[in-house]
Amino acid sequence: MRFLCLYKPGKPETGAPPTQHEMDAMGKLIGEMMQAGVLISTEGCQPSAKGARVRLDSGQFTVVDGPFAEAKELVGGMAVIQAASKQEAVEWTKRFLTVAGGGESEIRQLHEMPAPR
What we know:
Blueprint: E1 2-8, H1 20-35, E2 39-44, E3 52-57, E4 60-65, E5 77-82, H2 86-100, E6 104-109
Helix pairs in contact: 1-2
């Protein structure tokens, strides 16, 4: 089963890059996940000041440029993982949050496309 893990740091954006220690710790975890065959892809997001929110409501589009103030709603990164169960995805996510220093991750199982005939 594939799962999308959306990471929300839960603290205000600083725009500062991660420290070398933080990058080394995350690199180690990513290496373990790749070696275990769990990690399909992962990306971190640039600060919300470089982003926009687009909404369609009653046939009208609204576009709001960042930055966005509410830290707990900001997506800081994502990963797509392959896990045998939701519980396994939760366990990998707990490890990620420990290395990331906290926050919240939403885990969503992805639809699987049937194999072509």
